[in-house]
């Protein structure tokens, strides 16, 4: 069934060449309203180039790109006010305070506010949401790396973007800050309807945040689906482990649920230490990239999940 709304991002045949080097050779994907999509790929695969083209910071060599209905290479300020960007490294405004900086940035978005989509976010709410209330009036130069990263996030979302780009968003975050950020991403997508496209090297983060995962390798998208869908493509079988009567058993099966049901029907309470294992997203990612980079372009595991 087709989605009820037009895609927020539509990329078809995207190409990027630097001299004689083809970085992107035909990238195709879509992002739909309210989706959280994670772009994965090895270093040099073209993730940053792809994101910069979508943000309007780099001009593509070929293909068609539409972001919020416009070509980013030609879009103006009204379009840019609808897009949020959190870069991988912070911007250094050492003598400013977070409050002052965010007030200034918020003023840029105010002219593009509408009745249905008011901009910017209310400042005190934003400071509390990203965990900067206690440090809002300190000079930015005195903040820790994690606190500066929180400020980066605040700067990226203050305009209440309809589409948010996140490049390694939790780099420098401690575990609690990372969890708080994940909650924020879910709040933006679930309650605000914000579409989010992120890159990360943290596969656990990708699995926790993303509705869909795209894997970019050798210049094009080689896999597209949820973490569970992609894992099933690479490892259709599950490994069931259990103990009975002091012995340890292992069995591979394509459908673990009926197997486990039969196991309990046969042996009941004799079954202990039951465990069902599937390939992790990390296993899946490595297998897909290695398979494609080895020249195997026809492997079923690389086919897109039908949607």
TrEMBL record:
Compartment annotation: Cell membrane
One Gene Ontology MF term: ATP binding
Domain of life: Bacteria
InterPro entries: AAA+_ATPase, ABC_transporter-like_ATP-bd, ABC_transporter-like_CS, ABC_transporter_ATP-binding, P-loop_NTPase
ABC transporter domain sequence ranges: 9-243
Bilayer disposition of the protein: Peripheral membrane protein
Gene Ontology cellular component annotations, sorted alphabetically: plasma membrane
Gene3D superfamilies associated with the record: P-loop containing nucleotide triphosphate hydrolases
SUPFAM superfamilies (UniProt xref): P-loop containing nucleoside triphosphate hydrolases
A GO BP entry: response to antibiotic
Family classification: Belongs to the ABC transporter superfamily.
Name recorded for this polypeptide: ABC-2 type transport system ATP-binding protein
